[in-house]
Design goal:
Shape: elongated
Number of strands: 12
Strand content: 25-35%
Structural class: mainly beta
Low-confidence stretches: none
Order of helices and strands: EEEEEEEHEEEHEE
Length: 190
C-alpha cells in the first residue's frame, strides 16, 4: 500500500517534485497538472467588549481544555476574517456580533506550526451568552479580574494586556505579533 496521495481532481497518484517556477517540493499530478499546495492555516480570534470588560471563555475542547481564552478558531473557505471571528464568537458563546463592526487588532504568525493569527475586537450592544461544548464558562472581566494564571495561551498575554490598555483609552492600534525563539513580542504598526 502506497503512502503517496492521490489527486483530488482526477484520482491519479501524485508525484512529489518542484513545479516549474516554484521553490519547494509539492505533490503534483502528472495526468491533469493539478498541484497540491499545503499552506498555513488562518486562525481568527474575537475580543468582544462590554464597557471596560472583555469576554473570556473557559475552553471546553482541546487544545487547552479547561483554560481561559477569547473565542477563536479556524477560518473557513468562503468567509472574510471578520465573518470568521463573528462566527467563532457565536458558535462558542451564542453572542451575535456584526462582522462589519469588528476592527483588526493584531496580526501574528507561528511559522513553526504554519499558522497565521488575526485578532479582531468589537463592542457588544447587548450581552446574552450561553455556555456550550466549546465554552464551559463565560465571563466578562476587566484587566484586574482576568484569569491570567489560567490563560490557555500565555504567549499572548502581553498582546491581551495591550488590548486592555488601548481599550481603557478607547484609542486602538494595530499590532504585529512575532514569536521567535520562544519569545512573543508585539509592535504597533498603526
Amino acid at each position: 500500500m502506497s503512502d503517496r496521495p492521490f489527486c483530488r481532481r482526477c484520482g491519479t497518484p501524485l508525484t512529489e517534485r518542484v513545479p516549474k517556477g516554484d521553490h519547494k517540493p509539492r505533490w503534483c499530478c502528472e495526468a491533469c497538472n493539478f498541484i497540491e499546495y499545503d499552506n498555513p492555516k488562518i486562525i481568527v480570534a474575537c475580543i468582544a467588549t462590554v464597557g471596560d470588560r472583555v469576554l473570556w471563555i473557559k475552553r471546553g475542547t482541546p487544545p487547552k481544555q479547561g483554560c481561559w481564552a477569547q473565542p477563536s478558531g479556524f477560518m473557513e473557505n468562503g468567509e472574510t476574517p471578520e465573518q470568521a471571528a463573528a462566527r467563532e464568537l457565536f458558535e462558542e458563546t451564542g453572542v451575535v456580533m456584526d462582522p462589519a463592526k469588528l476592527n483588526l487588532f493584531l496580526v501574528g504568525s507561528l511559522p513553526a506550526i504554519s499558522e497565521v493569527y488575526l485578532v479582531y475586537y468589537g463592542e457588544l450592544n447587548e450581552f446574552q451568552a450561553t455556555v456550550s461544548d466549546e465554552a464551559l464558562e463565560i465571563r466578562l472581566c476587566n484587566e484586574s479580574e482576568a484569569p491570567w494564571e489560567e490563560y490557555a495561551y500565555p504567549e499572548v498575554i502581553e498582546a491581551t494586556r495591550q488590548f486592555y490598555r488601548d481599550h481603557a483609552k478607547r484609542s486602538y492600534g494595530v499590532y504585529r505579533g512575532r514569536y521567535v525563539d520562544g519569545v512573543n513580542t508585539i509592535e504597533r504598526v498603526n
